[in-house]
Design brief:
Layout: E1 2-4, H1 13-17, E2 40-42, H2 43-46, H3 72-77
Antiparallel strand pairs: 1-2
């Protein structure tokens, strides 16, 4: 089992076909690889830990210390990448963070 991002066009057909919701698609479409092998994710690369968080692979940039305030979704959609916004932070179902309400623009 593998997901090859060199072949992926983000059509989400695999998400629709998966009956267990084991495959999800974020809206973060920036996939830059310096090594073709890094674009191929195997089952062991994709497994999450007991808390539902994914493992960080050695070539992935997770911005040390930002996990409490940001996810890939937040960095991709918040104004200027700013995680500070009005209201209570609650997370989307992406990567095991739960559900998040709509955010307001930060001042």
């Amino acid at each position: 089992y593998e997901i090859n991002y060199l072949r992926c066009i983000h059509c989400d057909l695999c998400v629709e076909a998966c009956p267990t919701e084991a495959i999800t698609e974020t809206k973060l479409f920036e996939f830059s690889f310096t090594n073709r092998q890094d674009a191929i994710y195997t089952k062991s690369d994709l497994l999450v830990d007991d808390t539902g968080k994914p493992q960080q692979l050695e070539w992935e940039d997770w911005r040390e210390g930002e996990d409490k305030n940001t996810s890939g979704w937040m960095r991709a959609t918040s104004p200027s990448g700013d995680a500070n916004f009005t209201g209570v932070v609650s997370w989307s179902g992406e990567l095991g963070y739960g559900v998040r309400s709509a955010e307001e623009k930060s001042e």
